[in-house]
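User: structure tokens for this one?
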Amino acid sequence: MRRVINRLPSRRSKILLGAMPFILVIAVYALASEARHAADAADKLMPGLDAFRAAMSRLMFQVDMATGKKLFWADTWASLSRLGIGLGISAVIGLVVGILVGFIPYLRATFEPFFAALSLVPPLAVLPILFILFGLGELSKTVLIVFGIAPFIIRDVMLRVAEIPREQIVKAQTLGASTWQMILGVVFPQVMPRLISSVRLSLGAAWLFVIAAEAITAEAGLGYRIFLVRRYLAMDVILPYVVWITVLAFVMDYALRLAHDAIPWTRFREGG
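Assistant:
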């Protein structure tokens, strides 16, 4: 008898099975929305699919009179810019500091406890301090993202550096390599895949910090729009924005996964 754990779905079956939960959620929502509107035509908590289409069409294709922009795309660009700058700075800091602290014993002994403690500080708890120090502009939002995820990336890179076999370091020294040559030729190539994985794992937290900062002070952004229209219980805007944020996060995660898999020695290491 063939066991269920040995039955593998085909590629088409995987696509259909993966789409089923989404279709089921949409169908359940549509039925629940219809039932609520049958009881109260003015219900705002669960707007119908037509309301979503109308609201998003207005935000995506109509120019806002106050700002002169199409709000949906302006919000998307504002949030992605903040996220991209924050992630980029965090990745560079994590790579440079993580390699140096992880590779040089005296730096590791000095800074490893510090970064361990820093990574445990709740970033949202220091958000008021960041606003006081850096103002209410873009700088404080970027610093929040960097403060929130850079310590995690640094620690992850440090751990990867520590995993490098000691024999490789000894062999490089035997061949006459300097510290910088070992960092660039031995450590850096082996750390790059782990850095991309760390950034992938940080995406959720980075989006959280962007939304939180925009909710408090911003003039554009996906988080800003969600918290602005919540005053009017505009679920026809809030829910599509939440879905859009999820789609953006998924696309970014998928792109990073492709970048990770594109590094040849990651496939070699996995035996592919």
